[in-house]
């Protein structure tokens, strides 16, 4: 399978570069979806479109047996690309900074690999090209609209590119692999006025600063040091002039835990701490957790065992790593809430000793040598799982 995928390297890379130049945000994946559908049409693979607004579910196999799903996400991020690559984003303020262009290209590579040996696909392989991973809970919507049904998916497999591992290495673990995550928003309301007369105002800026500092004590003093937790304020907006104390300050960030119960505890304490610090400073804090709370990604033991043995055979014994949990969130979790599955990371570290830029960074790049590996892993996992489930 790996040798076959290597022969498709230029084809897979070409798709990835086409997608990379035209990144689209969640539920806007119109051009991206068009590339996917065009490629599926060229390969003669049937698909359902639309699902979850801009998503696609393709199917392969003879239908006589179990059903396994492979998933890739398609959306980009509102980040202006700074990476010096010939195929850099042509859309200002948007970038495939999380590697979803790689994910989509690898799954299309797997689609071609499986189509060219469809006589070996005894059962059904579903290919999920999913929108809105970056906060839009596209995975949850795919499930709600029937992606896992007719026929019922019995296992699901997903890959995320990982710039911290070299090409040729993968990693994952049994149990919780990625964190439960939610969005945090706090608005601190005070009384504005002239900055030269602060005694006539109720300063929301100073209060917001105190809230930011106090929120950190929730993790450092209320959570067991052996239980990972994150509260990060990442945006602060307030004021329009250097000599005016504003009426309000708005802050945003993220809250994360390895369990949904832990996430709920952190959210409750954020409400209480922010509200009471604001009250102590004669302000009001309005706390909200908008959008979608992502549950943790839970890897099934049997599914990871199957992926691990398959990857060791393909890449070598030392290329497969047992990793600790990662505090990043992923809406692959919505699938593993419903069916057994496994989510792995695939090394895409650039060659040499240069700096490593993580995902969600404007200088993030992926080593394209990993793309055929990802395609081969997808396709091999599907065939191995169908055989195991029969």
Summarize the structure.
With about 400 residues, this protein is of the alpha/beta class. It has helices spanning about 1-5, 10-20, 30-45, 100-115, 140-145, 205-220, 260-280, 300-315, 335, 370-390, and strands spanning about 45-50, 55-60, 65-75, 125-130, 155-165, 170, 175-180, 180-190, 195, 230-235, 245, 250-255, 285-290, 295-300, 320, 340-350.
Identify low-pLDDT runs.
none
Biggest sheet record? 8 strands, mixed
What's the assembly state of these chains? single chain
The percent range for strand residues is 25-35%
What is the overall silhouette? Answer: elongated
SS class:
alpha/beta
Count of extended strands: 16
Summarize the helix and strand pattern as letters. Answer: HHHEEEHEHEEEEEHEEEHEEHEHEH
Query: Helical segment tally?
Result: 10
List the strand order in the largest sheet. 1-2-4-3-5-16-6-15
Q: Give the fraction of residues assigned to helices.
A: 25-40%
Mind telling me the C-alpha Rg?
23 Å
State the end-to-end CA separation. Answer: 21 Å
Q: Give the mean pLDDT.
A: 98
């Amino acid at each position: 399978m790996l040798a076959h995928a290597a022969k498709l390297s230029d084809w897979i890379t070409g798709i990835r570069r086409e997608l990379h130049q035209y990144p689209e945000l969640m539920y806007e994946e119109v051009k991206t979806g068009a590339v996917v559908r065009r490629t599926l049409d060229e390969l003669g693979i049937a698909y359902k479109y639309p699902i979850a607004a801009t998503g696609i579910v393709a199917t392969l196999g003879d239908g006589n047996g179990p059903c396994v799903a492979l998933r890739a996400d398609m959306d980009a991020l509102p980040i202006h690309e700074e990476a010096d690559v010939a195929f850099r984003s042509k859309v200002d303020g948007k970038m495939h900074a999380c590697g979803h262009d790689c994910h989509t290209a690898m799954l299309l590579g797997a689609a071609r690999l499986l189509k060219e040996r469809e006589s070996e696909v005894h059962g059904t392989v579903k290919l999920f090209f999913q929108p809105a991973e970056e906060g839009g809970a596209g995975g949850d919507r795919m499930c709600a609209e029937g992606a896992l049904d007719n026929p019922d998916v019995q296992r699901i497999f997903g890959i995320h590119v990982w710039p911290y591992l070299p090409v040729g290495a993968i990693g994952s673990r049994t149990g919780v692999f990625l964190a439960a995550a939610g969005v945090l928003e706090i608005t601190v309301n005070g009384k504005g006025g002239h900055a030269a007369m602060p005694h006539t105002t109720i300063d929301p800026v100073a209060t917001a600063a105190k809230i930011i500092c106090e929120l950190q004590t929730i993790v450092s003093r209320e959570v067991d040091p052996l239980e990972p937790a994150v509260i990060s304020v990442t945006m602060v907006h307030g004021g329009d002039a250097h000599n005016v104390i504003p009426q309000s300050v708005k802050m945003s960030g993220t809250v994360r835990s390895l369990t949904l119960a832990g996430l709920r505890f952190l959210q409750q304490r954020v409400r209480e701490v922010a509200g009471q610090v604001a009250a102590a400073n004669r302000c009001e804090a309005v706390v909200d957790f908008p959008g979608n709370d992502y549950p943790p990604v839970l890897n099934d033991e049997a599914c990871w065992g199957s992926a691990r043995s398959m990857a060791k055979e393909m890449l070598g014994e030392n290329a497969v790593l047992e990793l600790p949990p990662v505090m990043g969130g992923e809406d692959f979790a919505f699938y593993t809430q419903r069916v057994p599955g496994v989510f792995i990371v695939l090394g895409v570290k650039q060659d040499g000793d240069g700096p490593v830029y993580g995902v969600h960074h404007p200088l993030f790049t992926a080593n394209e040598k990993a793309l055929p590996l990802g395609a081969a892993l997808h396709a091999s996992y599907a065939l191995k799982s169908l055989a195991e489930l029969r």
